Amino acid sequence: MTDAAELRRRTAELLSAYPPATTDRLDFLKARFDAGLAWVHYPEGLGGLGAPRSLQAVVDAALEAAEAPDNDARRNGIGLGMAAPTILKYGTQEQKQRFLRPLWIGEEVWCQLFSEPGAGSDLAALGTRAVREGDDWIVNGQKVWTSGAHNSRWAILIARTDPDVPKHAGITYFVCDMTDPGVEVRPLRQITGEAEFNEVFLTDVRIPDAHRLGEVGDGWRVAQTTLNNERVAIGGMRLPREGGMIGPVARTWRERPDLRTADLHQRLLKLWVDAEVARLTGERLRQQLTVGQPGPEGAGMKLAFARLNQEISGLEVELLGEEGLLYDDWTMRRPELVDFTGREAGYRYLRSKGNSIEGGTSEVLLNIVAERVLGLPAEPRTDKDVAWKDLTR
Question: Which residues are marked as active site?
């Protein structure tokens, strides 16, 4: 049984053999993965030691104290937070060996090819087709709102493989090479001026059956693992007190007494408490993850994340008055990551509008909380038993 003392010993050995000050960053990360200290709850040989997930904090604290390099998790959030747990649960041993190491160290960035122009909130209605041809699948269709597709080597992809069965039953889950012929990535410019999102066109893209995750037609069940992890990754990230969006507005309040009013004071206090409640709830959710896979409770955290970000950023712009209307740069650019706290209030206000759409719309997440967490009756669904090809579109 690997305990905290054993992990401290292994971490000390890693630091001794690969001193952070003199070791190449990627070499250190590779050595950390091979030592089982990347994600300690993963199996041995796949970056872990089969240890309790809660002990990851022991490793992280020791490495941070030694100023060791990290794997820049924000740059590959989809890979680490969504693709990796799905591959671990449904991938073959060959797939795990091939994908997890370069994913964790950041050599290969991942994106998510799920949403489509006609299948966003109703994701199971997707129309991208994958047709079997020998040992390959030929994929044609369009995906949209693909974060980071312009920087990605791999994508997790769901496509329709059987149009003659109900929509949830005819979907299969694949890993798509974003460098393959037929994959075209186009930028989607957002209200912020940036294009971190993309639309992706797939034209006769050939995916080997060896890159299928799970059974043919079982893609919806596999995708639930991805989606549950996505909501936790977005809404349940670990933050210190006054981390995230509440930090900049609280700092402005302290440093600019000339901007204060009694009404803004009351509203800020309420949002500060809400943010702290959400932070502590997220900590509890992560503790629950140590004993199993994330469930629908993550939808509640994602809901709170979106609401708080929008309300806090709105308050910040109002607090700053005319200054809040300033914007530093409308230049069209394609960033590698989203940095909410590294820019000004106007950016936070505009970018937070997407929080209630990305990672599942708030309307859909409310249904998930109602039905799967609170046990309320499900909404009537007249298309449950209708073949996808017969649905009205």
Answer: 230
